[in-house]
Write a structure and sequence with these properties.
This protein is an alpha+beta fold. It has one domain (about 10-70). Helix content is about 60%, strand content about 15%. It is built from two helices and two strands, in the order ααββ. A two-stranded antiparallel sheet has the order 1-2. β1 and β2 form a beta hairpin. α1 runs antiparallel to α2 (about 30-55). The longest helix is centred in the middle third of the chain and has 28 residues, at about 30-55. The protein is elongated, with a radius of gyration of 19 Å. About 0% of the residues are buried.
Amino acid sequence: MGKEKKTFEQSMNELEKIVEDLEKGEMPLETSIEVFQKGVELSKNLSKILDEMERKITILMEKEDGSIKEENFEN
């Protein structure tokens, strides 16, 4: 079967681990570059997910009469 898609949280945890490992400075240069590259890819994917979620967010606004209306979230 194909590779399972990671959740946002799993990807974020993986990115945090990469940053932690790189900050230690204990890896050989070549390995550090490979790990850094993976971190950049994760960062791009996380950013894309956040952008998609931002478009889906709806803000519930309470009207003066107490009723609720939905508005699409816009920048």
